[in-house]
Design brief:
By secondary structure, the protein is of the alpha/beta class. It contains four helices and five strands. Strand 2 and strand 3 form a beta hairpin.
């Protein structure tokens, strides 16, 4: 999604997190590097490889959202998660536009020093419950971030019995 579009996650992150915190934009890694056209399979693959090469070995912070179906990082339920672990970034297909996307390998996400998941809205309550409950990541990709720091608004939060509670503080 172009960064100047209202739906751009990158633009939203810059305006609400990066700029107010005084973080240098050079330390932020948008999913598709500037100048790449990812509208074809070849373009998406080239963008994935370029992005993979531009990334640090380990992220300090990965900020994720959670979709109503439990997806995160453009990894949707049923997605093949590259079990060989040979890729750090790979193309994926979404059930709704934009269809062609890039995602980070689960090992890269879980290897971050801190994983933060931001969730808002009652339409996400079932997904939050599922992501914080045990089960296969392939069924609910948000589970890969279950051990991270979850910032959940009241509408999206339920407190069912047996569900792991999100981390309430970041420990050094």
């Amino acid at each position: 999604m172009p960064r100047d579009q209202p739906q751009s996650n990158y633009r939203l992150a810059l305006e609400t997190l990066v700029e107010p915190a005084g973080i240098s934009p050079e330390r932020v890694f948008p999913m598709i590097p500037e100048g790449f056209v990812a509208s074809t399979p070849e373009g998406l693959e080239a963008a994935a490889l370029a992005y993979e090469q531009a990334l640090p070995e380990r992220f300090d912070v990965v900020v994720l959202g959670l979709g109503g179906d439990g997806h995160t990082a453009s990894i949707f339920p049923g997605t093949d998660l590259d079990p060989a672990g040979s890729r750090r970034v790979f193309p994926t297909v979404a059930p709704s536009p934009p269809l062609e996307r890039l995602t980070l390998a689960p090992a890269l996400i879980s290897g971050a020093r801190v994983v933060v998941v931001l969730v808002a809205g009652s339409s996400k309550a079932d997904a939050v419950e599922a992501a914080l409950s045990p089960g296969p990541i392939k069924d609910v990709p948000g589970r890969m971030a279950a051990g991270g720091v979850w910032i959940i608004d009241a509408d999206a939060m339920r407190r069912p019995t047996g569900v792991r509670r999100p981390t309430s503080a970041v420990r050094p």
